[in-house]
Design brief:
The protein is 37% helix and 15% strand. By secondary structure, the chain is α/β, with parallel strands linked by helices. The protein has one domain. An eight-stranded mixed beta sheet has the order 3-1-4-2-5-8-7-6, with helices on both faces. A hairpin with a 5-residue loop joins strand 6 (138-139) and strand 7.
Amino acid sequence: MAENIGLGCDQFTFAVYIANRPNMLEYQQLSNITPLTTSEIFTIGQACGNGWRKVFNVYAKLLFALEPKVFPFTQLAPTWQKYRDDFLLQNNSQTTLLFSAPLLSPQVDKQQNTLHIICGKTHAKKLINSGKLDCQLTWLDDEFAIDRVNKLVVCPYFDYRQLSNNKIERLATLLLELKLGLS
């Protein structure tokens, strides 16, 4: 049976899927979801460079762009930077960064209300073409796609140039619609 593999909270309700792993030995052989410690995001950024810092920054900025009355993330820290450093991908954060393909189960996710985000059109298409992702994507434009049944969104890669602040706001709106069950 397939397993979720990545970094973060194993009781997640917010899942981000990414094609690559940090280029550090301890992350190459993961076989489950491993929570990060308080300083680990900084350590990964130092060891793996600006690309990974951007991934973590965009992830935290997205959580802070979400409607705070519906999503609890802004209640835990005063800024996205503080949230990133003290809560993102840690135990009890409900957030995860997965290197495995999405394991979608609409019946289960209706109860858990898990939101799924695939970073990058290329990654999404690779998952679909390999048979690892079975979903019904509706492409909204060249960068964003949505599957309302599975509460899944495909968006640009978590990088400032690809997922600008305006696109983060758009993604936040799509996620709110999915969370509230709006069409």
